[in-house]
Amino acid sequence: MEEYPEEMRSPPVSLVSVVGCSELHTSISTYLHSLDPPINTLALPDLSKASLLLTPKPTTTPTSDSTAPPPAGILKREWLLKHRTKVPSVVAALFSSDRVSGDPAQWLQLCSDLDNLKALLRGRNIKLVVVVVCSNPNDEISEDQMVAVRKRADVDAKYLLTFYQNPDGDGDGSQLKESLYRLGSVFVELASKYYRDEGRRIKARIERKSSNPPELNIRYSFKVAVYAEFRRDWAEALRFYEDAYHTLRELIAGTSNRVSIQRLVEIKTVAEQLHFKISTLLLHGGKIIEAVAWFRQHNASYRKLVGAPEAIFLHWEWMSRQFLVFAELVETSSAAIQSISPLPMDTADRPLTEWEFQPAHYYQLAAHYLKEKRSSLEFAVSMSEGEIDCSAESVVPSSYLGQFARLIEQGDAFVMQPLNDEEYMRYAISEGKRFQDSFEIIALLKKSCESYNNRKVRRMGSFCGFQMAREYYALGDFSNAKQSFDDIASLYRQEGWVTLLWEVLGYLRECSRKQSRVKDFIEYSFEMAALPISADASIQSFRFEESRPAGPATILQRETINKEVFGLVSGELRLASIENGNDLKVCDGNPLHLEIDLVSPLRLVLLASVAFHEQIIKPGSSTLVTLSLLSQLPLNFEIDQLEVQFNQSDCNFIIMNGQRPHVAAMIDSQPGRRIETAPSLALSTNKWLRLTYNIKSDKSGKLECISVIAKIGPHFTICCRAESPASMDDLPLWKFEDRVVTYPTKDPALAFSGQKATQVEEPDPEVDLNLGAFGPALIGESFIVPVTVTSKGHDVNSGELKINLVDVRGGGLFSPRDTELSMDSHHVELLGISGPDGEDESQLNTDEIKKIQQSFGLVSVPFLKSGDSWSCKLEIKWHRPKPIMLYVSLGYSPDTNESNTQKVNVHKSLQIEGKNAIIISHRFMLPFRRYPLLLSRTRPVPDTDQSASMPSNETSVLLVSAKNCSDVPLQLLSLSLEVDGNDGTERSFSVQHGGKDLLDPALLVPGEEFKKVYTVTPEMNSSKLKLGNVCLTWRRDSGSEVQSGSKASVLTTHRLPDVNLELSPLVVSLECPPYAILGDPFTYFVRIQNQTELLQEAKISLADAQSFVLAGSHNDAIFILPKSEHIIRYKLVPLASGAQQLPRFTLASVRYSTGFQPSVASSTIFVFPSKPHFKMVAVGDDRLESLVAE
Amino acid sequence: MIVCVAVVGHQNNPLYIQSFTDADDALKLHHIVHCSLDVVDERVNNPKKAGPTLNETFLGLLYPTENYKVYGYLTNTKVKFILVTTDLDVKDADVRNFFRRFHAAYVDAISNPFHEPGKKITSKTFAERVSTIVKSFGLSSTG
């Protein structure tokens, strides 16, 4: 596109001219240029110089004579440039006002200048504007003078302007601005009028003379289109450009190839220019689809117009340029392409495809045609060899577009002399020789390739890259070629396009040969030889060009390459180097080592699979390992020696080829290296070579085969990474082939599951680890677990004991962190580890105990000789009932040499249950036969908490009992009631208990209960009573047996609930003797106490009883005075002996509407048949009040 | 005239490629077939651009080179068929018909119990059948 002149590439801009008053030109031209659309200005300093600008119109007006000879050309080369830079549409004559109003001589001069100007413009229809410049707003020109000027210049009043120039500045410059504005609008109007008139004039010519020669019609259409462009009427411009294009096409429609070379060149040049204009207009209008379709049509019309065979390279060059220019056009408007997203696939005749919107596509084709051009040019050059003609030098482009002429000096003047076709061809060939097409082709392909790759169109990109690399190769730029070829080869390898890969590898092989890179050459040769090109492919007649270095893709060629490369590696052949002249060979000074890893394309050449027959082996015992090798090279070959390398270098061994004993001598025998000999190490195509050997390792851990190194010939080795048969990838490329699938091992199971690594176990431990605890642990106590380490054969060096506590429900969580998480706030914790012989933890060396956490401990074990033993005790405390798992593991090394020995581990685990030892309960009771009325009990409010309530001012009884719920007998050491909180505060109640504290520990067998009775008297006038905690100390009753529990006593506390205190309004107490005697009357008192300040009304009733005769009122209503007591007396005579029910007394309080009836137990009395005789024994106060009850 | 047909597998590897030209442009045809896979990818990955050809096995004209036209076809198992022809005026119906017959031949070939899916098609019967289909291409509509 750059080779087009500027006037072609940009849309035309209107041109005006200002004459005279040169001091104003800058401001006017700047202003006009800033307009939208801009206007270019042509400035002349003086009116009298106007004739310099406007050369008189050529006298030859277009004749209407149809018999006139056809025009010499289609388009004038300079026409467009002339109209853009030389022929203004409007001329403005500027002169200062004093020339009008001043002296007559000046006026006359002005008149003659204006006349001259008018005469110049008349023939060209150029519009005239007269501008009178007033430097001072005050020097007005009279109306008469203005009319005179107008008449003289013969312009419309509209086009006679007064321009106010303010050299001194008029403050804001508004007058200047206004003048500029007026001038600008007049220019715009007149310019547009001029271009329209010109367009109309030419259009009329087209319409008037249908018999015009087509050349003229093309020219006229072109001109109309250009004028339309000046006016920015793109639609009309497009229409007339297309008209011109079609007319041009008709020009050669029938003549086919009979046209002369120069004529065809001219037509194509014009077509190119018209096409360029049309494409630009379409693309600028955003009509990308139309543009592409137009280009396709343009291409289709002219592709076949190759012209004369000797000038065919001109055609290819032209084609290439079409594609290049269009590619650049599409690329520059690619922003527009992105916006047109869903491409309509179906246009009228043929669907457009994706690539036709990509500049890369056009670049690629431009390169393609340029290659065509190069080959035809080379041919043309070879044909014209010898005809040296210097006359080509004076050939220049002639005045018509696409024509060339010879410039001949005739005296002073130069004369254009037309060329004949032969001369022109010589000129064209000599011009063509000047250019290096190869670089151009590479640049085009590179652009295309990058553009495709950016859009992730990899295959097209690779194809371009392939062509580019071939160009590089042809140019001898092997490093660039190799780089491109390598990129492409990887894609073809990946997708399995063997024939394409073969071709690329052929080039790569040649590149490395020419760069004398022996290693690369051998690698590429090996890969080529191992490619899956079967005999079938060779049937397909691939007749490759001679120049292609890969040769035919046949099995024969593979074998040839195979032979060559083996000749090279064995040192028999040399690699003929091009670059530095000397031959290269693989020899002593130049050994060769190839690495084949898991992704290398050379896996085809040699694949090593290693399988251990056992997944786990014992240290020191031997297992079998199978080594399998596979090659896809077409010819059989022998390996001289194989070296198998493991991660444990002690296991490495070498396999010698038994058929080649002479090679064995060459090995520098390393001492201690294991050497095996195989009967044969020959590899044939697609057939596994299987070798099985014993292997033995003393070290525990992983034993893995790393690589297999094959040595072929004295200086060539291939190192092949070992692969597990179980996880082996298919061979690339060969996996698509229909071939016999074989297994690397004889045993198919091993082929599916075999691994290149095996696990060597640890040696068996010869140390006993014993956990001595049994039975459940009790909550609160420090549970002791004795751990004993006894050596039975191994010495224990640097032993370490790890202790883990794991929640059973949490599963087998060994890690200390997890156990901590699972045991929220440590329900069970490891308190400490005490050393042997009952040593205290504190007495142990601080170095030895390394770490104790709540659930994890680490302790070191001292050196133990075989037979020795060592023990320690773990102290564990439970806070909640929870079963836990105790894991203890001992790690030690059996040898004293710490550096290389491995740790042996012993693990033991024990599940321990944590249980509650004692359950403490309590009960509140009231004194016998005394019933305070508690209103909260009679009317329970559902919302209040169901805490116990107690009458204030009364003495209540608290019964505390402790029950042994464990499986072992316990010793109770003390039981006490302790009020929590500080002692400073007054006790709100007094507690007494009948008996003394325990003097001796009480033995509590499993299931037994221990009770203690307290009397509680509230002393404070508060509503709540905090009773505090019951504290019980106990320990296991060890007796004589050795117990794992500690001797320390354990404190168990039980919190007593708070008690509500209530004032009872009424207290009823029943009084009767402790026993009665048959027939002997006794008195039964009912005492009702009113504790309120109110009069209390109560209804009483007494039911008859069978066993008693009763005297007293059965039913009555009584009134009890405030703070007084009412006593009701009954006289009773028992009629039956034994435990008898007293008559039931009932009281109903009217005020509280509640009733009272004593319980059955409290209204029972024992009646003796006769007066009993008691033996009176003094009962001491020191009697234990505590009762032991079942 | 059909100059090349190809069957391309899942990994864009050629399963069967056969050219029917005497000229030595087999390699060039391989390149063309390989490049056309880009268009297939593009159409499969951006189905909304493809518009009316959505959900159709026939992919239509893949791309025009200067001398060839390339058509594509995608089976339900994502195996691609590629056709390269030198005819400039090809009827869509002919191409569709060709692919239908080609697909049938392919199905028969891979139904062979001894054929392993994903491997190259080496059946001679298939090759013969394909060459028959290729020879009869375009005859049905013209004749």
TrEMBL record, chain A:
Domain of life assignment: Eukaryota
Domain Trafficking protein particle complex subunit: 263-530
Protein name as catalogued: Trafficking protein particle complex subunit 11 domain-containing protein
Automatic annotation (TrEMBL), chain B:
Localization of this protein: Endoplasmic reticulum; Golgi apparatus, cis-Golgi network; Golgi apparatus
A Gene Ontology term for the protein's cellular component: nucleus
GO biological process: endoplasmic reticulum to Golgi vesicle-mediated transport
Coarse class of the protein's main subcellular location: endoplasmic reticulum
InterPro entries: Longin-like_dom_sf (IPR011012), Sedlin (IPR006722), TRAPPC (IPR007233), TRAPPC2L (IPR044760)
Alphabetized Gene3D superfamilies for the sequence: 3.30.450.70
Pfam family for this entry, one: Sedlin_N
UniProt keyword list: Endoplasmic reticulum, ER-Golgi transport, Golgi apparatus, Transport
Family statement drawn from the similarity comment of this UniProt entry: Belongs to the TRAPP small subunits family. Sedlin subfamily.
Quaternary structure and interacting proteins, as annotated: Part of the multisubunit transport protein particle (TRAPP) complex.
Name of the molecule in the record: Trafficking protein particle complex subunit
Organism: Prunus persica (Peach)
